[in-house]
Structures are given as C-alpha cells and as structure tokens.
Write a structure and sequence with these properties.
It is built from seven helices and seven strands. By secondary structure, it is of the alpha/beta class.
C-alpha cells in the first residue's frame, strides 16, 4: 500500500476515518485518519460491509491526500455516505487497520467487540438498491429487524405487512418464512 500508517500508540488505540463530503456522485472519495483511544469515548460510526474479492478490481480513494486502494463494495459505501452528510467519522476495518501488519491486525481483532459496541451507530452496507430491495426491507420491518422508532414499530410492521399482501408478494403469514416466496427471495 502506498499509505504509511502511523503506529497505534496504545492497546486501545484505533484509527478513525474522517470522510469528506462530496457535492456530486462523480466527486472523489477522500478523508483522513485520526487516532483515538477507546477509553476516551471518541465519536464515530462503525461500517460493516462485504469485502468481496479484495485481490483484484480495487478502487482508489484519497487517504490523507494519498491514493489508497479499497474494495469496490467499500468504495460504493463511501461514495454513498459522502453524499449524505458533512464530514463523518467511521471505523472501517479495511482502512482503520494496517492490513500489512499482522501483529496490529491481531491486536485490533481482540478489541473489535469494543470498537463496535462503543460506536455511536453501526451501519451495515448491503449495496445499492436492486429490483427487490424495497420488498426485502418491508419483510425486515414485518419481522422487526428494521425500525426507526419503537413508538411506531407496530404501525410500521402493519403497514409493511399490508403492502406485502396488497402487492401479492405474500398470500399468507407462512409465506414470510417460505424460502421460495418472493419476499424471502428478495
């Protein structure tokens, strides 16, 4: 890798990627690394995503103003996130851990549960919308996996269930658990 990492100072030190905002989808994804200690309670979001095949087909971002290669899945996530908000801080394993330093990787894996637990939010990047993404999220709402506000949980579940029935995506409640149903396939 072209980027030279600064060694982590303490056993509970992590690197947080501060993602810069871009004004258009064609903008260059960029950011900088900040070192922090978990015991100090830094504010960041943890990003979880599918690495995919990281040996080929990489995409370039600017990390501390230097080119840095990431997987296409991570690039898509960062591109989408950089359009949504101002500079935001993320812990991202592929960027936050020096992947060429085996001893650092081992130390960081040992504290990964704390990294995710102490994050302000954990974001799971599933990729861009596809033809049945909306159906999948309706099913998630029905099953209680996705909800924005506990006060609206029942209403959201009922609305999602009604939509699935109304659009013929499920015929009965048992379809919610049938691997062959459109909703579960989505």
């Amino acid at each position: 890798m072209l980027h030279v990492y600064t060694p982590l100072r303490d056993l509970d030190s992590i690197r947080i990627f501060e993602l810069n905002r871009v004004s258009s989808p064609k903008g260059k994804v960029s950011g900088r690394l900040i070192q922090a200690r978990l015991q100090d309670g830094p504010h960041y979001q943890a990003l979880s995503y599918v690495w995919g095949d990281h040996t080929s087909n990489t995409c370039s971002i600017l990390l501390d103003e230097r080119p840095f290669e990431v997987t296409p899945s991570l690039y898509e996530a960062l591109s989408a996130l950089s359009l949504e908000s101002q500079a935001t801080r993320f812990w991202i394993d592929q960027i936050s851990i020096n992947q060429e330093d085996d001893s650092e990787k081992q130390r960081q894996v040992k504290i990964m549960a704390s990294i995710f637990t102490q994050a302000d939010m954990v974001i799971g990047w599933l990729g861009h919308n596809c033809k049945d993404s909306d159906v999948a999220f309706k099913l998630f709402r029905v099953l209680g996996v996705v909800h924005e506000d506990d006060r609206n949980l029942s209403r959201d579940r009922n609305r999602a269930l009604h939509d699935l029935f109304e659009h013929g995506l499920i015929r009965s409640i048992t379809d919610l658990f049938d691997p062959a149903s459109v909703a579960v396939q989505a």
